[in-house]
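Form P-L/3: holo structure prediction, ligand alpha-L-rhamnopyranose.
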Amino acid sequence: MKSIVFLRQITKIVFLLIVSIKAYALSDIEPVNLRCEYKVKPVIDVKAPRLSWELISRENNQEQKAYQIMVASSAKLLGQNKPDMWNSGKILSGSTNQIEYKGNELESAKTYYWKVRSWDKSENAGKWSEISAWEMGLLDKIEWGAKWIGYNLDSLNKNPDYHLPPSPYLRKETDLKKPVKSARLYITSLGLHEFYINGKRIGEDYFMPGWTDYNRRVYYQVYDITENLSIGKNAFGAILSYGWYSGYLGYALLVKSPQVRAFYGETPVLKACIVVEYLDGEKKIIVTDNTWKANDGPIRESDILNGETYDARMELSGWNIPYYDMRRWKPVKIYPDKAERKLQVYPGNPVRIYTELKPKNIIERPQGKYIIDFGQNFSGVVRLKVKGKAGDSIIVRYGEMLHPDGRLMTENLRKARATDTYILKGEAKEETWMPSFTYHGFQYVEVSGLQYRPDTGTLTGVVLSSVTPQAGKLETDNAMVNKLYENIVWTQRSNYFDIPTDCPQRDERLGWTGDAHVYMKSAIYNNDIAAFFTKWLEDLNDAQLPNGAYPIYAPMPMKNGMAAIRPSDSYSPGWMEAGIICSYELYKAYSDIHIVRKYWQNMKKFMQFLEQKSAGNYLLKERSFEETNPKGGFGDWLSIGKKTSPDLLATMYYAYCNKLMAEMAEAIGENSDQMYFKENAIKIQQAFEKHYMDETGKLKINSEIYGNVNGYIEYRPETGFHGHTQTAYANAIYMNLLTPVQMEVAGEKLKDLINENLGKLATGFLGVKPLLPALSVTGATDYAYKLLLSQEYPSWGFEVVNGATTIWERWNSYTKEKGFENNAGMNSFNHYSFGSVNEWMFGNMAGIKNTEPGFRKFIIKPEVPGIGINYVNVSYHSINGEILSSWKKEGDKFTLTVSIPVNTKALVYIPAKTNGFVYLNNKKLEKKLENGYVPVEIGSGEYIFSSVIER
Ligand code: RAM
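OUTPUT (holo model):
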């Protein structure tokens, strides 16, 4: 009896032990890639920063059931689990991103340390993450105590063609009496700056503080300069340039605008604050004030569009190191601040050197000139390593293409001089120089002034781009498609340059809104652009016009209530919707409801503008936008063939924006707005159907209404405007504006139009993005592949086989027969809009599409062509982790390898033959075929599916 009791007790203990082990078992779920406001260990000035992490685990179908965040004011406290700032406690939630800090108030200039742990699907806690951190900027402008300082050199270098004054140099020396514990540099400028401490350039960033509406806000950077300082004398030096603040912008010179440069101010100015903390805790603060001295120096001209001239003979040797003789330097001038101008931490990804390129080919030209081919079109500059006599000028001209006779083609740069000049000081050793405040879009440079043949070390291509982290990879067994993808990536790299520009080479480089929204989803698959667009959406909303319309580009400097670069620039259907579409894409891709909330009132104001335009008809009839220039806006810009009515497009965008607004309203819990926009969308769809569609489902417009009206850029009386175009159907399908029956009809019509056009596309900027997706949705994947794989004009392949290394602005930017036919004045070879086919390559060819914000839920539904591609390997690093879709077709055998991040769910569609079987990791699945696919829902993990498909 005794022993039985004993046994019972033992069993009970063992049982309790097992239960408690289970309860306290440590899961292998682990938070990694901890970020704050989309960045790893950033400096920020957001009062309730958003935290995110990704999860890893060896277990399949793993999920997060809860999390806990701890934030402390020191790493030590956090290590001891003493979160003096915030302890979230165990929060029952599956969210791993967009989690707002809810702790004690964050203070200026402090660093905060944080960690997180998650509970897995079985409610077991994982281990704590590694410690991450963020630092706060200066939260109040007053704290800077610094003045705007500058040195006006505006009267110099005024010549009839360009007014390019030299760069001011500013400096100051300070004694530091004791050993330094830590030091920070807070720095900004109106115009561009480079900053030096004791001879060393601070930071790796270029073109800071970026382009904003400087009347409203200017950004600053924060650098840890602890290592740069030493006891004793320290020298601080800055070089300023005109940049977007006071240099040339866009085509102002070309179109002979009343003002061509200095749109925000004339003199570039600097504001800096250096906070030094000595080892003993005492602080010393050095600010820009009237104790700084100024001079002009070797940079004789510097302008983003026009280039830089550097006279090495005028170098101020030793100017940025201590004990420099300052007698010839002048006092700086103090410039007033604007009370309303905000001073904020740069929220985007700064421009940095991406990589360097060696010359691929060096070609000798007449008159001692050489052309250097870098083999790749890109944004950046060249670094020179040259020798020669004092006073010799080395002149570098930049171009994207060569004329057939071998000359550098520069006509398409229009008024952008795009020339850098280096004047040698004539040293015995080689002299090295790279411009600081200009960039060019080019593949070739022409160099003159060299007394010898350059070799591959003489000129180096320096690639500059905003550092948006890589997110996607795409590879197929089709060399042309691979090259197309590479070209798309290079085009994005060239144009995501502080703002999303249209092109990097000519006198334009503006944040064109139409280009930005048609390409954005494509961009998302390639890079993490969350921070980049967080910055530009601010620019876009700052530029919202008083009537509520979003402009055709942003930033848009204004003068007397009109665009300053070209007074007739305002808004355009197809462009202005970027205010809605880009916010929506950011929300969808990164689950960013914060951005939706932030601009909700702005977006509603835009919707009111559209409503007023529709005058109660829920429709934008023909000739609804007579007030813009060009009339009706830009329409399906650079399309070829029949032109789509801009108002028909405007109406579709009107409906589409209402749909997106309804979805965003739901996301932020604005229920009445949601109802309102949803109903509006329906009403617009009905009005659209009534006005722009005949009984057979054919899209139509009344072209005669446009007759005899000058000012419609694409309207010709002979050819008119149309509704029955590829662009019109593609958009109607993509935007989901049709009933199922109409959808089917539209799909047929779209195919008919392609057939009539000998199997070719005819779309412009607005039609190209939805074209392949629309074909896919309506079951014409074979058509989509035919267009993708075509190498005949007009197609993506045509550009590739004609040597393109980036995406062209026009389908016929260059043809072998006609050369640079068209308008060499508007002919960029580095323009991403037509690269929007990338969205289809990731979303359809590889089949990765998000169905819940942030790719928390997504589908993988690869579309497999009959011929042309047998292997596709695509990954996308979402905010929830890395997704893989890799498929292979060998005869009739199909294999699909997928990888699903922890805490996400995927609906995988495996293509299969009727009556065919689908295997998962070699095990037969008992599932039914639906429209050629077997859908399988899976959680995290790696899986290999195989099936038999039609050959
Ligand atoms: C061109 C720009 C841009 C386009 C507008 C309409 O000048 O390059 O790509 O959006 O015009």
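COMMENT: Residues 2-24 form the longest helix (23 residues).
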